[in-house]
Design goal:
Length: 386
């Protein structure tokens, strides 16, 4: 069989199991999207604080720019000529807000998660990773020379056993988790993880706050801020492409770790730095995050409403946040229900294997602070009658 025939056959197999993905064509209009001529409320965006649809913020930012300061490209890696001052301003601001020794900015969360673990690991490293960590972390693990064991999702008893069983055989152990999990919307017990890590001097804790940055914590710094354990997390990572309505990612950490990453991290070294204008926008947003508590409170209230509606309708709903999965099971059934919601003006998307485990296909609602309470009430009514 030639290569193209083989590829076609694989695509047919994906289609037959309702797992073929296609790029959706859509027009964006603030909180809404228009798909196939139909206007719908976007319930699948990661714009958790609704900032990307906020025109007044954009106007305010644009007023700070001139043709001289609008810098659309860095034209280089930061280690060569791409290290514009705005990068260091953002890093200083992050270190100040988090109260850490240092911060380092990356082009994306994907760059961060695929680069940090390979840079820090060697063959005497053991990585203990939660079963449900994001694909970018899995890819980072695959690229690193460390041995990896995945523990059952949020099962800290198993993690404790693994630590005591293996601690004497490795130079270092890195525990890897998300703080707010991207598919179930549930949270890791960061306080308990910190306690576990403290049992051994050679254990590092790596926490990905992609879905919590901007949303959790009194100043929007994430779940670690809420749990008052920022200082105990060695590798605290977050992204700017979700609640911060921008692009890129950060780590806040010790100075030595920052310097080591600058020297060893391939996804930092071998890439053109983000456009300075983009970093300036991130800084503009990051400086305003602390004041956005009313948005965080509204988001928490509408999320609770939706979770309650799902529980009433008999769905298991692991979520403790604004990421609210409606777990249906079979992929075909999930697609039908998503289409029905879309016909009623709610743009919610099915998430299928391999993104989630087989048999747990779901509609993943991801609520944003610009969604109104009445809209969630309408959605809840619809779910009750599904
Ligand atoms: N970590 C998690 C938990 C994510 O969900 C994602 C993206 N959805 C990333 C990292 C990657 O971040 P980015 O989109 O900035 O590459």
């Amino acid at each position: 069989m030639n290569i193209i025939d083989h590829i076609q056959e694989e695509l047919h197999t994906l289609e037959a199991s309702s797992n073929l993905r296609r790029l959706p064509q859509m027009v964006h209009d603030g909180r809404e999207v228009v798909v196939n001529g139909q206007r719908m409320l976007n319930l699948s965006s990661n714009d958790y604080l609704g900032l990307s649809a906020d025109l007044s913020l954009r106007r305010e930012f644009l007023a700070t720019l001139t043709p001289e300061t609008f810098l659309p490209t860095s034209s280089s890696s930061r280690l060569l000529t791409g290290n514009f001052t705005v990068y260091e301003e953002l890093e200083a601001e992050l270190a100040h807000l988090f109260g850490t020794e240092a911060a380092l900015v990356f082009n994306s969360g994907y760059h961060a998660n695929t680069g940090i673990l390979p840079a820090l690991s060697d063959a005497q490293t053991l990585i203990l990773a939660d079963k449900l960590v994001h694909a970018s972390l899995i890819d980072g693990i695959r690229l690193s020379p460390a041995r990896c064991i995945r523990y059952r999702h949020n099962d800290l008893l198993q993690l404790e056993r693994l630590l005591s069983q293996h601690q004497a055989s490795y130079r270092q152990i890195i525990i890897v988790t998300e703080s707010l999990f991207s598919m179930d919307g549930d949270k890791a017990d960061l306080t308990a993880l910190v306690q576990l890590k403290r049992l051994y001097p050679h254990v590092l804790l790596y926490v990905d706050e992609a879905h919590a940055f901007g949303v959790c914590g009194p100043h929007g710094l994430g779940l670690a801020e809420e749990e008052k354990c920022i200082a105990d997390i060695d590798l605290l990572v977050g992204t700017f492409g979700k609640a911060a309505a921008s692009a890129g990612a950060y780590i806040v950490c010790r100075k030595a770790i920052r310097e080591y990453l600058v020297n060893k991290m391939r996804t930092f070294i071998f890439t053109t730095a983000l456009p300075p204008v983009n970093v300036a926008w991130t800084l503009f947003i990051v400086r305003r995050l602390a004041r956005m508590q009313p948005l965080r409170q509204h988001l928490a209230a509408i999320s609770l409403l939706l979770r309650q509606a799902l529980l009433e309708r008999g769905y298991t709903c692991p979520s403790q946040s604004h990421i609210v999965p409606m777990i249906v099971g079979a992929s075909a059934d999930t697609i039908l229900r998503a289409e029905l919601l879309q016909r009623h003006g709610f743009y919610a998307l099915p998430v299928r294997p391999p993104t989630v485990p087989e048999g747990t296909s779901r509609i993943r609602f991801s609520l944003t602070a610009d969604i109104r309470r009445e809209e969630v009430e309408q959605l809840a009514d619809l779910i009750r009658n599904l």
